[in-house]
Amino acid sequence: MRVAIAEDGVLFREGLVLLLKAAGHEVVGCVGDGDALLSLVATTPVDVAVLDIRMPPDPDGGLATAERIRALRPETGLLLLSHYAETHYLMRILEVGTERIGYRLKERVAGVQVLDDTLTRIADGEIVIEPVLAKRLVQVPGGRDGGALSALSEREHDVLRLMAEGRTNNAIAAELFVSAKAVEKHIASIFTKLDLPGDQAVHHRRVLAVLAYLRAQRIDG
Amino acid sequence: MGVIGGVRWGGVLPRRLRAPSRDAADRRYALERTLHHGAVADVSVLALELAMVSRSVADPRLDTAQTTLQRALDDLRSVGAAIYPPVLAGAGVGPALRSLADRLGLRLRLDLPAHDLDGDARARTGLLVADHLQTLCPGTAVHVRVRGRRLVRVRIIDRQPGRPGPRHYRAALRCG
């Protein structure tokens, strides 16, 4: 896979290059800010661009750069990295796109296998969401009635968390050691219990519906 | 005092919250940046280096070390976010407080002015409310109302699970 990197931390950038090469990917460019990445993507074929969220030109320059790359080269996948798992960043990323896009914590992709898996999923058109963030959204805050979320079984809760990570039915089945058919049943039950609209068959719409629901549970106004 | 936006703000004498000064807000921002570019960045690089070492050395202690590093980063993140919410400088009071409420498991209702607060008011108001949110336990319902431009008035009502009655707070910040 042809990968380009924009990260203002020199040591992290160099470490990421080594890890990507170790995973068998071709690093076609490695720059320190969003504008340089945009110039690179404009002239060089890139399968996935890896961007730091908090880098120049703005405080959150990675987000603005991701928007510009998506407009210029919609076929290029985007992996946004941050030291922080913030729902605000997630919502902004979902505004940039809901396919071929990912948001992960920097240290959580520090591993050949997890980095490779993340990039492959993005290149395949999936949306990849930091599991830490998905888990937080799915958790019912202590001491309060979780409403419809409390009505979910433990297994349905697991399926909901993996859906919020952007996992496909097959990936959820593999993670939970159940059949894809069983996952489909759980998802249908979740959508009924949460009264979620939308077409469950369209993967990215399903992820969006789940995330919008989970967010709305926490924000009242 | 009375009913504003469907919320009863009166009834009890609100406690006063003290907003950080402009200097304190600036210092907190600089401190978070130092932590972000220093310790957090260094530990993240260490995580990458450990991953590279794991490629050539099969030792279960490396997995333990990786887990320890992740835990250290989680702690550093919590400290950094408490010093200065990461979203506040880039996106403003609303997104910063909503993200914080998500992280803390709070049910937040925000009533913000239609206009954007300027840099000073934004930072000090955001920090004032964020500091209060940090004191609440998960599941707490919080209503925050902000008004004004140069003289910013903040009112907060929180209702913590298992505790009787709501608590009322207010603050006024002279900004600009």
From TrEMBL, chain A:
Pfam families: GerE, Response_reg
Record-linked Gene3D superfamilies: 3.40.50.2300, Winged helix-like DNA-binding domain superfamily/Winged helix DNA-binding domain (1.10.10.10)
Response regulatory domain mapped to chain residues: 2-116
InterPro entries in UniProt: CheY-like_superfamily (IPR011006), NreC/VraR/RcsB-like_REC (IPR058245), Sig_transdc_resp-reg_C-effctor (IPR016032), Sig_transdc_resp-reg_receiver (IPR001789), Tscrpt_reg_LuxR_C (IPR000792), WalR-like (IPR039420), WH-like_DNA-bd_sf (IPR036388)
Any one GO MF annotation of this record: DNA binding
Residues bearing PTM 4-aspartylphosphate: 52
GO biological process, one term: phosphorelay signal transduction system
Domain HTH luxR-type: 145-216
UniProt-listed SUPFAM superfamilies: C-terminal effector domain of the bipartite response regulators, CheY-like
Keywords: DNA-binding, Phosphoprotein, Transcription, Transcription regulation
Residues that span the membrane, as ranges: none
Name listed for the protein in its UniProt record: DNA-binding response regulator
From TrEMBL, chain B:
Domain of life of the source: Bacteria
Protein name: Uncharacterized protein
Organism of provenance: Actinokineospora fastidiosa
